[in-house]
Amino acid sequence: MSNTFEIPDLYFDGQFIDVLWDNLDETVNWFSSNFNWKIKVNENWKVDPRCTQGRMVQLDCGTWLVSYLTADKLPHHFADRGTVQSNIKLCFKVKNIGALYNKFASNGIRLSSLYNGPVSQYFDMWITTEGIRLTIQEDPSLLTDEIYPSWVRIGVNDLEESITWYETYVGMKVVEYNKENNYVIMRLKMNHTEEDSLWILEQLEQKSTIHYINDQVQPYCWIQSRDDFFKYHQLLKAQGIKVSEIGGFISAGMVSFHFYDPSGNRFNVSSM
What letters, b where the CB count within 10 A reaches 16 and e where it falls short, cover 191-225? Predict the structure, then answer.
């Protein structure tokens, strides 16, 4: 697989969490109570003109909660619930993972065991009545006990193939390749800052059946040029990659689509 075509620069832009309409206020309150996050934006806004109603709430760490009502399934804005678990984990880092684990456990939140992963310890948690999964990572170098954004972990069936695929079709660059522990840290530019975002591709212990999974937690990348966004969509389709149709406001406004890596992991892009 060689990059004989030019892809646009992608900038990591945070994450959308798809929330059912009746659960949005509960989810906002959960983050406020448990992560101490504040509301930055709260507006009635439809992700797609085909929605009958829509709301978006921006919280800390580049996190948007989106909720909408629609009579038909939208081409891009949707999530599958109660199906196969995604191999994409959105991570947040804390100074003392044990203390936070005990706090959440005492509050009755569903948690995985503490486990070792790339670089550090982790635990997974499933929040609100919808069971939205987030992942907590330990970083003792932090100076405070607040929760900070970290990297995105992506489990893949074939690590070597996936490294080449993400380099070719997403423009990621290798930062560190840990062959002994079967993971690679990659980077992408980040929107609104000079820093890079970090992504970890990690070899799954057992190859999974390829399901095209549409999780509620959806990391997003941004394309600066609207024209480049539409060209990128056509380029991916021409390469035979499984790509959604474009959702949002096609003539003017935010537009989005998603595509899937060789392991069925969903990758989201937007533009304005």
Answer: beeeebbbbbbbbeeeebeebebbbbbbbbbbbee
